[in-house]
Amino acid sequence: MKMDKKIIWQNRASRPTRTFLQPLAVGIACAVFIGLVLIMGLMDIRRSERNLTAFLENQGLAIIEVVQRLAQENLNALVQVHQRETEQSYAPFTTEASAPQTWLTTALADLGKEVDNKWKADHLSEAGLKKFAAEKGLWLVAVMNKKGRVVFQNRPLPNDIFSDDRSLPKPPEVTIELLTELAQMKRIGYIALQRKDGSGTVIIALDREGLLYWGLKVSVQKAIEKLGEGQKQGLVYMVIMNKTDMVLGSSGRLPEKWEKNEIKTYNLLAGTRKAESRKVLYLKKKLLDLAAPLYINGKVAGIVRLGLDGESADLILEENKRNLIFFMIFVVLITLFSMWLLYHNQNRHLMGIVEIERRLEKAERLSALGQLAAGVAHEIRNPLNAISMASQRLKREFTPSDEENGREFQLLSGVIRDEIRRLNGIIEEFLSFSKSRRLILQNYPATDVLQKIANLVSVEAAAKGVSIRTEWSETPIIIPMDMDKLQQALLNFVKNAMESITSEGAIHLSIQYKDKNLVAIAISDTGCGMSAEEVERIFNPEYTTKEKGLGLGLTLSHEIIRGHGGEIRVLSAPGKGTTFEILLPAEQLAERLNGNAPKAKEAA
User: Fold this and answer.
1) CA 278 centroid distance within chain
2) More confident residue, 577 or 262
3) What residues contact 156, with CB distance under 8 A and at least 6 apart?
4) Which of 336, 243, 322 minimizes the C-alpha distance to 48?
């Protein structure tokens, strides 16, 4: 018989009402763990940031090294050309001059054009010319009219510029012949720019320091321009200055102003530091501002300062930060899950403790009942036997002769006999309950036990209109059991099923393997069923629905099944019958699973 019912009760421990968790200790441990992970993540980000900064610094130093090498080559070429010249002057320059001479001449010519433009615009003065010469590192800047007379000059030529055997009554004026003579004697170079209409001439002269400055300047500027012809990825600006902070060359859009001591350049000029760097925000971009010494002829000649775009490095750092955030979220989730798992496991252990306490309490209560049963049996059984014999003698020897009194006498003596029988039954229940845990387990066919029970109750069931159905395989299912006590327990379930059927109905007995370690015995009925509240209490010794007796049958069965290491599951619903499923441990199941199909049998 198949039943489609919902499991509303199972013989398992109830959930505890208290918790077994130390949240403060667990929270502190989790916080420490998360803190360690966070610190490690931050250290990793800082390490990545340092590595990326070092990478950008190496990239900047490589660019500086290229510029330095190109500038050295240009300067060497300019010096070699200058040394080969027989005429120690920059005027006139021929078209056959080498490229370094051309660069220098072009640079000085551009300065002369700038002075001439100011002269034409009438913006030129002695003071302005002095400032211009000082800013540009020029020894002499002079402007002559068409008659060859000096109109403006930044300085007069001193008397002691010539040899000791020559003296002049007054400081000489600037002339081309005089500059040519000075170029031969003092190695002063000059360039003269004359207007096409002959209305004026601009003369620019350089002393030895000026020649060195402008030679280095054009060499550096051409090196920067040559660098610009190649790859400059990430380079935002570059500026090269000599030791006196005069610009030798630049490229890109330079910052308008650098604060003093932003970078400690004195260490770089002293050659004690390879590079200095800092992060800046320039044109809404994060840059690495890098400064390094410029080496010419093996000596520090100035400072190279450049700005490198750190956008790619910032993207990598942002990616690392996102990964850290995701990792932290993952760690927090894992930690919370671990806390929940710890909470769950601790409460599960607590449930075991509560269940042990409940079983211990129940065992003590049952033990007390067993002791009470033994005392009751000892104290009451003998008087009951005496009362029973006395009632039988009264019925046999002292029956009244009066018919009406005789019938009443027979009725009263029958009541006494029935009550004595009922008291004997109560005593037997107590004695059976007190002995239910003393089990002697032996291997025995469970199918034979069920068949005996079916045979025992078949006559009584037939009298009530209840049919007994059995279903199991022909191969015996052997399990370790105390045969008498297990039969008593199963018989109690069957009797309980019969009592639940008020009219015609059926009881179904079956046995099968639940899995390789368990045998399931099912006892189902079509009786009145039970509510969830009733199911929760049916194995309680203090609970009974019977009008007669103590109602210890199911409690006794429960103790016997527990003694066999089994478990009881109850499926019931009001008006739809009840199923008791008894799970018992089996032996050598693998040898006994032979696939025999069960067949149904019916007893009267």
Assistant:
1) 33
2) 577
3) 171
4) 322
Pairing of strands 285-296, 299-309: antiparallel
Q: Taking a C-beta distance cutoff of 8 angstroms, is the pair 472, 506 a contact?
A: no
Backbone angles phi, psi at 205, to 5 degrees: -120, 145
Measured CA to CA, the distance from residue 221 to residue 219 in angstroms comes to 6
CA gap 572, 372 in Å, rounded:
33
Number of H helices, E strands in the chain: 13, 18
- Whether 521 shows a pLDDT value over 90: the answer reads yes
- The mean pLDDT of the chain is 76
Question: Do 532 and 9 touch, CB atoms closer than 8 A?
Answer: yes
Which amino acid would we find at residue 533?
Answer: E
Model confidence band, residue 71 (pLDDT cutoffs 50, 70, 90) = confident
- Domain topology for 85-214: Beta-Lactamase (3.30.450)
The DSSP letter of residue 16 is P
Confidence class for position 509, pLDDT limits 50, 70, 90: very high
Whole-angstrom CA distances from 440 to 364, 559, 563 are: 22, 14, 10
CB 201 within 8 A of CB 138: no
Using CA atoms, how far residue 580 sits from 82, 361, 518, in Å, is 117, 25, 15
Angle in degrees, CA 451, 493, 578, rounded to 5: 110
Backbone CA torsion sign across 74, 77, 83, 89: negative
Quote the pTM value: 0.49
Cβ atoms 476, 411 nearer than 8 A: no
The shares of helix, strand and coil residues in the chain, as percent rounded to the nearest 5, are 50, 20, 30
Q: Is the peptide bond before 92 cis (omega within 30 degrees of 0)?
A: yes
What DSSP string runs through 30-72? Answer: HHHHHHHHHHHHHHHHHHHHHHHHHHHHHHHHHHHHHHHHHHH
Integer Cα distance of 561 and 556 in angstroms: 9
Q: What is the 3-state secondary structure (H, E, C) of 493-511?
A: HHHHHHHHCCCCEEEEEEE
Place of tokens 């002293």: 270
pLDDT value at position 420? 80
Q: What values do phi and psi take at 424, rounded to 5? A: -65, -35
Strand order in the sheet with 276-282: 247-252, 235-242, 299-309, 285-296, 276-282
Distances (CA, A) of 486 to 452, 518, 566: 12, 16, 11
CB 381 within 8 A of CB 375: no
* Digit-coded pLDDT (tens) for 411-447: 777 778 877 877 776 677 666 655 555 678 889 999 9
Q: Give the rounded percent of residues in the chain with a pLDDT score beyond 70.
A: 76
439-603 — its CATH code? 3.30.565.10
Which secondary structure element, helix H or strand E, spans residue 245, and what is its range?
none
**Domain-wise residue ranges, the chain:** 85-214, 439-603
* 198 Ramachandran zone, left/alpha/beta (phi>0; psi -120 to 50): left
